[in-house]
């Protein structure tokens, strides 16, 4: 389909629009969508836990995160994929000790939005009040930051690895999609990006 193996990573904090954009881009370009959050949720469900409980378990069990990373790296090696997750860019770039290798990413994207906007989005999506959404987001982010620093020695809030950082609160969903498409299209037309 493409003249290159396409590996696009999309990261961002909860409620920033990563899943929405990853799904839309995967559908638009005919790419697989490998979603770290979905893998994590499935693992939580398998253990009969909600995300908060499982996040706490994951703090003491690095094998959970390492398994997610391995699955994402395998997908990156197969190519023609959108990898979604806070560490997806690190995984695709081969930056983590257990998934070392060449940088396979065609484009590394980070989506962001202010906490209040993200809390409103999560509240709407999950049918909870905004205050509860804010609390859950902050708890999850705290847990993840701790895990990522302890397990990998990386700070996922360091955005220097990303090619494109976009504040999704400034544009509508369709406008955000158009901006991302405008960044991706030229890369897919080139033989050697």
Concise synopsis of the structure shown:
By secondary structure, the chain is an alpha/beta fold.
Describe this structure in words.
- The chain has 8 helices and 5 strands.
- With 193 residues, the protein is an alpha/beta fold.
- The chain has one domain: 3-Layer(aba) Sandwich (Rossmann fold), CATH 3.40.50.
- It has a 5-stranded parallel β-sheet with strand order 2-3-1-4-5, with helices on both faces.
- The longest helix has 23 residues.
- The mean pLDDT is 91.
Give short descriptive properties of this protein.
five-stranded parallel beta sheet; Rossmann fold; 12% strand; 193 residues; 55% helix; alpha/beta; single chain
Blueprint of the fold:
Elements: E1 7-12, H1 18-29, E2 32-35, H2 36-46, H3 51-59, H4 62-78, E3 81-84, H5 88-92, E4 107-112, H6 115-126, H7 130-152, E5 164-167, H8 173-189
Parallel strand pairs: 1-3, 1-4, 2-3, 4-5
Helix pairs in contact: 1-8, 2-4, 3-7, 6-7
Query: What is the number of beta strands?
Result: 5
Categorize the overall geometry: globular
Instruction: Give me the Rg, rounded.
Output: 16 Å
The domain count comes to: 1
The fraction of residues in strands falls at: 5-15%
Helix % is 40-55%
Low-confidence stretches: none
Class of secondary structure makeup: alpha/beta
> Major sheet, described briefly?
5 strands, parallel
The CATH class name reads Alpha Beta
SSE string, helices as H and strands as E: EHEHHHEHEHHEH
Fold-level CATH name = Rossmann fold
| Gap from first CA to last CA | 16 Å
User: For the record, what is the CATH homologous superfamily label?
Assistant: P-loop containing nucleotide triphosphate hydrolases
Mean pLDDT: 91
Protein name: Cytidylate kinase
Pfam family, one: Cytidylate_kin2
GO molecular function, one term: ATP binding
Family: Belongs to the cytidylate kinase family. Type 2 subfamily.
């Amino acid at each position: 389909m493409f003249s290159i193996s396409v590996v696009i990573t999309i990261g961002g904090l909860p409620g920033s629009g990563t899943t929405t954009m990853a799904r839309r881009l995967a559908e638009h370009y005919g790419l697989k969508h490998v979603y770290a959050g979905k893998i994590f949720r499935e693992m939580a469900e398998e253990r009969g836990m909600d995300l908060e409980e499982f996040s706490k378990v994951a703090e003491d069990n690095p094998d959970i995160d390492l398994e997610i990373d391995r699955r994402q790296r395998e997908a990156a090696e197969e190519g023609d994929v959108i990898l979604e997750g806070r560490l997806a860019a690190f995984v695709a770039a081969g930056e983590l000790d257990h998934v070392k290798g060449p940088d396979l990413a065609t484009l590394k994207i980070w989506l962001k939005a202010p906490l209040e906007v993200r809390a409103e989005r999560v509240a709407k999506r999950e049918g909870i009040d905004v205050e509860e959404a804010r609390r859950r987001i902050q708890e999850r982010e705290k847990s993840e930051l701790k895990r990522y620093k302890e397990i990998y020695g990386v700070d996922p809030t360091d955005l220097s690895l990303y090619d494109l950082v976009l504040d999704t609160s400034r544009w509508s969903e369709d406008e955000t999609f158009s901006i991302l498409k405008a960044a991706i299209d030229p890369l897919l037309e080139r033989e050697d990006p």
